[in-house]
Amino acid sequence: MISGIRIRGEEKMEFKAAMFAAAVVAVLLSSPSPALAQKKSPPAAPSPVSLPPSLAPAPAPAPHYVDLAELLSVAGPFHTFLNYLEKTNVIETFQSQANKTKEGVTIFVPKDSAFAAIKQSTFSNLTGDQLKTLLLYHAFPKFYSLAEFKNLSELNPVNTFAGAPYTLNLTDDMGTISVQSMWSRPKISSSVYATRPVAVYALNKVLLPMQIFSKDPPAAARRTRRAPRAASAPASSMAW
Ligand SMILES: *[C@@H]1O[C@H](CO)[C@@H](O)[C@H](O)[C@H]1NC(C)=O
Ligand SMILES: *[C@@H]1O[C@H](CO)[C@@H](O)[C@H](O)[C@H]1NC(C)=O
Ligand SMILES: *[C@@H]1O[C@H](CO)[C@@H](O)[C@H](O)[C@H]1NC(C)=O
Ligand SMILES: *[C@@H]1O[C@H](CO)[C@@H](O)[C@H](O)[C@H]1NC(C)=O
């Protein structure tokens, strides 16, 4: 690009060209990225005054990615809930909400023991849509820290991920937070994960909305079966 410089007898031109070339080189060396950006932008539009990198608005922080399936498989045990999430693909809905870091997600995860306490056919009798709704009922499409539940409890009833008629009431009884559905009032027994945009709280019971279990509270599992199952640990509780 500096081939024109050496043309005989044109000292001034040569000097100007050399200065220009030096300036171009200086620009290229000092700020490679704006130069590259300008190269790519359409030539017609005059580019606005570009700020030095330090004054340009900071790029949005990289989304904090949480793999929900992995989280639930190592915490818990939450195998029953996770199996249902995967079977119905609701895990994808939650994961995609978690990926949208703006709102985030809050998931209430009943422990395996919570599912084991209810008669098994209660859940296997549900239609695919009912099961899906039940799972979505266990989440808010927004991140809430435990501290925020106190305020949230003033907004009862609170909409869940399952949509308008599926609401929960939150209560904060001297720091013990409960989640009230029609047929159950589980406590948040622990915070499994609570870093924006993902909150996962363990429940000691399954949430049972009126819209799905309309007539009666679901029957408890029979005690005579529960005792040996509890003793023989994970294999049998995962079998169904
Ligand atoms: C969520 O984000 C991760 C990481 O970017 C990506 O691998 C995954 O496919 C996304 N999942 C959904 C359901 O959007
Ligand atoms: C599930 O369906 C079967 C067959 O219809 C019935 O016998 C059983 O009582 C149902 N279980 C529950 C918990 O509703
Ligand atoms: C709860 O609400 C009060 C009053 O609106 C506010 O000052 C406080 O920051 C809120 N707390 C949380 C944890 O959001
Ligand atoms: C939730 O709270 C609202 C308003 O206080 C009340 O009308 C409703 O009956 C409550 N629902 C449950 C399931 O407790």
Can you walk me through this structure?
There is one protein chain. This protein is of the alpha+beta class and 240 residues long. The chain folds into 2 domains: 1-59, no CATH class; 68-238, FAS1 domain. The chain contains 11 helices and 7 strands. The protein has helices at residues 11-30, 32-40, 68-74, 79-88, 90-99, 112-116, 121-124, 128-136, 146-152, 223-231, 234-238; strands spanning 105-110, 139-140, 158-160, 163-173, 176-180, 188-195, 198-203. The strands form 2 sheets. Strands 2-1-7-6 form a 4-stranded mixed β-sheet. Helix 4 crosses helix 8. The longest helix has 20 residues, at 11-30. The protein is globular. The model is unreliable at 1-46 and 224-240 (pLDDT under 50). Residues 65-207 form the FAS1 domain. Belongs to the fasciclin-like AGP family. It comes from Oryza sativa subsp. japonica. May be a cell surface adhesion protein. Residues 219-240 are annotated as: Disordered.
Summarize the topology.
Layout: H1 11-30, H2 32-40, H3 68-74, H4 79-88, H5 90-99, E1 105-110, H6 112-116, H7 121-124, H8 128-136, E2 139-140, H9 146-152, E3 158-160, E4 163-173, E5 176-180, E6 188-195, E7 198-203, H10 223-231, H11 234-238
Parallel strand pairs: 1-7
Antiparallel strand pairs: 1-2, 3-4, 4-5, 6-7
Helix pairs in contact: 4-8
Region (Disordered): 219-240
Protein name: Os09g0482780 protein
Subcellular location: Cell membrane
Q: Order of helices and strands, N to C?
A: HHHHHEHHHEHEEEEEHH
Overall pLDDT confidence: 75
Percentage of residues assigned to helices:
25-40%
Instruction: Please report the distance between the alpha carbons of the first and last residues.
Output: 74 Å
Structural class: alpha+beta
The major sheet is characterized as: 4 strands, mixed
